[in-house]
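Batch manifest line 139
LIGAND: DQA
JOB: complex structure
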Amino acid sequence: MAKVFVINGPNLNLLGKREPTLYGSETFEDVLSGLRAKFPDLEISYFQSQSEDELIDALHKSSTGEIDGIVFNPGAFTHTSLALADAVRAISTPVVEVHISNVAGREWIRQKSLISPHAAGVIQGFGVKSYELALSYFL
Ligand code: DQA
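JOB STATUS: finished
ARTIFACT:
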């Protein structure tokens, strides 16, 4: 069974409450149980942090060979963090970058991702369904 690690960055713990017109009204716990039900052939683990260093450590730890893939929504760090981009670049585990909103159509500062050049691919703009589309890559 393929093992996929879903990692969410800052403020994504507030999913369901935070700007629901942009990010939807489901909590991530609900999204996660839906994903686990939908993908019985994937072992899905999950981590969320507000902190850049914890996210970097999570990426490094996923690179020990036990994890087959990472689905990563870096939140606002997408647009600012060279350190997270370096971490994605440094590990050999494939990373699919995910965004709930279509960042390409939002404010100019969100239109640039420092992560994308190092990701295996990017899925954005499909609401929380973006996670499902990203996970299907690892089937
Ligand atoms: C986001 C988009 C980011 O610009 C924003 O800072 C987030 C969420 C998304 O999933 O659409 O926190 O990554």
